[in-house]
Amino acid sequence: EPFLTADHVLMLNHPVEILKGTELLRIASGASQAVIATERNKLEVVEILNTKNYNLKLNSIETTHFPVRYPQGSERRLAESVSGKKLKSQQSAIEAGVLVENVATAFAVYEAVYLNKPLFERVVTIAGPCLFEPKNVWARNGTTANDLIRSAKGLLREPSRVLFGGPMTGEAIDSLERPVTKRVSTVLTLSPDLTKAGEEQACTRCAQCVDVCPESLIPEALMRAVKKGNHLLALEYEINSCTECG
Question: How many CA atoms lie within 13 A of 190 on its CB side?
Fold first, then answer.
């Protein structure tokens, strides 16, 4: 997602720890092979990981890269890209035999096993056009969004919305006193021009929504069914397969 750089920074600065954590995850899950997948605009990360792995000789780990295409990083999409399998409707990656984990999880596993360190902090991106100095910081669980924004030298202007997560799937928070948890990778401040909603217009059945839907659904039909309160029809059109990609 746009603005999110926590994982990128973690891979640049802690490649050995991530490789060792990935190997631990592979052993624990019983997998024969582990793949660290990145986007093609982060090829320097692939080089760093391959260089470090040359010395570690973890032959069960390989690296790969895919086109920068949202939502490439979602669990089902990534599982399909790595394994070459087409997942069935509503089938999870684990049901298809693929365990998908974030690099932050691999790093946390390394710290837990090698350093006996519990997960009480993680890298968090503080970003958005309303900030004075966007950055990545080590943030302890329970730190408020307000304190993290202060660590970025505060706000240049009042944001119209503050999210935990990215602009596509992030959760809007109603108070800057909300604390971050181990699942929060980003505190994002959005300006009014980025959150301004357009007026709803009549559907012309151009089918562009069908073309871009990663789950091959028919969003227009789903919208009509939901608006009319026809939940059975929405289920027939597989609304439960929607990943809410935004």
Answer: 22
Residue type at position 192: P
Phi and psi at 193, nearest 5°, equal -70, -20
What does the chain come to in residues?
A: 246
The count of other CB atoms within 10 Å of the CB of residue 57 is 7
Q: Are strands 121-127 and 186-190 parallel, antiparallel or unpaired?
A: parallel
Task: Return phi, psi of residue 66, to 5°.
Answer: -130, 165
**Residue 140: helix, strand or coil by DSSP?**
strand
Q: Report how far residue 9's alpha carbon sits from residue 20's, in angstroms, rounded to the nearest whole number.
A: 17
Phi, psi values for residue 112, rounded to 5°: -65, -45
Alpha carbon distance 87, 44 (integer Å):
30
Residue pLDDT, tens place only, 142-191: 999 999 999 999 999 999 999 999 998 899 999 999 999 999 999 999 99
